[in-house]
Amino acid sequence: ARLRMTPPFPRTRPARWLLGVVTLAGTAHMAAHTPQAHARSAEAGLCTEATAQAEHNLHIPDGFLSAMGRVESGKVESDGTVSAWPWTINAAGIGHHYNSQAEAVAAVQSFRQQGIMSIDVGCMQVNLQQHPDAFASLDQAFDPLRNAMFAGGFLLQMYDKTGSWPRAAAAYHSQPPGKGTPYQSQVLEAWAVPPDGREGAPL
Predict the structure, then answer these.
(1) Quick one: residue 194, left, alpha or beta (phi over 0 = left, psi -120 to 50 = alpha)?
(2) CB-based contacts of 8: which residues, under 8 Å, 6+ apart?
(3) Would the N or C end of the chain have less CB density within 10 A of its end CB?
(4) Among 152, 171, 153, which residue's Cα sits nearest to residue 162?
(5) What is the pTM (predicted TM-score) of this model?
(6) Which residues pair with 121 in a beta bridge?
(7) How many CB atoms lie within 10 A of CB 110?
(8) pLDDT score for 194
């Protein structure tokens, strides 16, 4: 899948309360309460479960954040379907998929040593330069649930500003009017035809 060439976030910072949302108890809650979600590989399943849990906790329409994740970090599986990939980086406009969290963390460190600071990471491609306080460490940045909860909280802020989920997705990508429209279309297309066969929620 073609990765996004520009970071989705505006340069404003989300509220710091989001960092306290994800706890070990939240992880246990995910196992108990998340509607079953399906993925084609164990790694992709991490993003699928994380975005489903964020949707549940933050009252985001079923499948919407998951669709955004597939647009953000989508990787083509062996059967041709696209799944969000937790070990994804976009650095200087170039997307990279890695085989493990350790590889992804090492890659971010390497990019920074090269002077590349605008780096998107994880299932939801949170930009570390624009959101320096989002995560306490790179390991946290690549934690699928923390990544999805941060992104979901930011999406909620955009929903409060715009009044609709499609417009919120566009603002998540870029707040200047019109710049997020192509991204919004990609998200709505992914939401309408999820790879796990679930029906997308109405607008």
Answers:
(1) beta
(2) 72, 120, 125, 127, 172, 173, 174, 183
(3) C
(4) 171
(5) 0.76
(6) 89, 126
(7) 11
(8) 56
Query: How high is the pLDDT of residue 24?
Result: 33
Burial zone of 35 (CB within 10 Å; 0-12 exposed, 13-18 middle, 19+ buried): exposed
Alpha-carbon distance 162 to 158, whole Å?
6
For residue 197 the two structure tokens come to: 């066969």
Closest of 85, 56, 92 to residue 70, by C-alpha: 85
d(CA 26, CA 24): 5
Lay out the sheet containing 88-91: strands in order across: 94-97, 88-91, 119-121, 126-127
Query: d(Cα 186, Cα 183) in Å, to the nearest integer?
Result: 5
Q: Tell me the pLDDT tens digit for each residue of 101-138.
A: 999 999 999 999 999 999 999 999 999 999 999 999 99
Q: What is the pLDDT of residue 196?
A: 54
pLDDT value at position 40? 64
Which residue ranges in the chain fall short of pLDDT 70? 1-40, 194-203
Tokens of 48: 């699928």
DSSP 81-111: -EEE-TTEEEETTEEEE-SSHHHHHHHHHHH
CA distances 34 to 23, 27, 57, Å, are: 15, 10, 9
Distance CA 59, CA 161 (A): 16
> Cα–Cα distances in Å, from 4 out to 60, 74, 116, 136?
22, 10, 17, 25
Token duo for residue 49: 């479960």
